[in-house]
Amino acid sequence: MTKAKETEMAIGKITPKQFKESIIKHLNSTFGTDINKASKKAWWNATSAALNEFVYDRLSQTQKTHFEKDTRAVHYFSLEFLMGRLTGNNLHNLGLFETAKKALTELDIDINTLVDEEEDMALGNGGLGRLAACFIDSLATMELPAIGYGIHYEHGLFRQEFKDGHQIERPDSWREYGNPFEIRRPESIQDIPVYGYVETKFNDAGKVVKEWHPGRIIKGVPWDVPVVGYSGKTVNVLRLWESRATNFFNWDVFNSGGYHDAHKENVESETISKVLYPNDETDAGKELRLIQQYFFCACSLKDIIRRYKRAHADDWSNFSAQVAVQLNDTHPAIAIPELMRILVDRADMDWDQAWKICRETFSYTNHTLLPEALEKWSVRLFEKVLPRHLEIIYEINRRFLESEVDAKWPGDNAIKSKLSIIEEGHERMVRMGNLSVIGSNKVNGVAEVHSALVKSDLFPEFNALWTDKFTNVTNGVTPRRWLKACNPALSKLIDKTVGDQWPTNQEILRDLDKKADDAKFQKAYMDIKHENKVALTKVIKELTDVDVDPSAIFDIQIKRLHEYKRQHLNLLHIMALYRRLLQNPTMDMVPRVFIFGAKAAPGYKLAKDIIYAINKVADKVNNDERIGGKLKVVFLPNYRVSLAEKMIPAADVSEQISTAGKEASGTGNMKLALNGAITIGTLDGANIEIAEEVGEENVVIFGLTVDEVKALKKQGYNPWDYYYGNEEIKAVLDWFDTDYFTPGKPGELSSIKNSFLDGGDPYLCLADFESYSEGQKEIEAKYKDKKGWARSAILNTAYMGKFNSDRSIQDYVDRIWKLKSCTVK
Ligand SMILES: *Cc1c(COP(=O)(O)O)cnc(C)c1O
Question: Where are the annotated coiled coils located (predicted)?
Answer without folding.
Answer: none
